[in-house]
Amino acid sequence: RLGLVTGRDLAQCVRAGYPRWVSLFVYGAMELAVTGSDIQEVVGSAIALKLLFGLPLWAGCLVTVLDTLTFLLVHRLGMRYLEVLICGMIGVVAICFFVSAAQALEMSTDVGASMRKLAVGWAVPSLQPWGYEQSVATLGAVVMPHNLYLHSSLVLSRRVPIERHQEVHAAVWYSRLESGMALLFSFFINLAVVLVFWRHFYRVECASMEGGPYVCVGADALGE
């Protein structure tokens, strides 16, 4: 909404509306947020490549860096090309996890009970003491403050004249719809991810032990 109404992204508004020292402080905070988010994504991608293809962790990190450079090159061709590429990749990931989630439910001894527990957990969330750290990590991975700057800049590619209030109002409405659909879709993807990991990796005896789930993860978990 900020980008569509003002014609400027959040970073430009911060620079125009606050003193220089405040802008520098906000910039530093967002750089730390980006770094913290990217570290887990790079390491997670390296671990995934290790599990799938046997690549060393350092090689997986390099592949992830090359992926980022590829996205930047595609972005130079135009925002629409980048959006199509990312949507295609998300679609492939979503299909894989949805299929894996369906298989995980089929492998359950009581599918009905599993679905009921899933529905109850969805409606009335609860958290065990050993899950605090994982929940905070998940929240940090999903809710990224620096995305506010990114999204407020992305909507500027729509090129809506800010002096035409009716068009701006319509663009804001469609932006809300787009964001809502994206969040709903990502929710179902995350739900499928949780189902897959619950079936293949979760063990009650490990999670309830002192030290949480990590006590069951040995040094050979990644083939080291």
TrEMBL record:
Transmembrane segment boundaries: 55-74, 81-105, 180-198
Protein's organism: Phaeocystis antarctica
Compartments (UniProt record): Membrane
Single Gene Ontology BP annotation: iron ion transmembrane transport
Topology of this chain in the membrane: Multi-pass membrane protein
Pfam families xrefs: Nramp
N-terminal signal peptide: none
Record's keyword terms, sorted: Membrane, Transmembrane, Transmembrane helix, Transport
Superkingdom of origin: Eukaryota
Protein name listed in UniProt: Uncharacterized protein
Main location: membrane
Listed GO MF terms: cadmium ion transmembrane transporter activity; manganese ion transmembrane transporter activity
InterPro entries associated with the record: NRAMP_fam
GO cellular component: plasma membrane
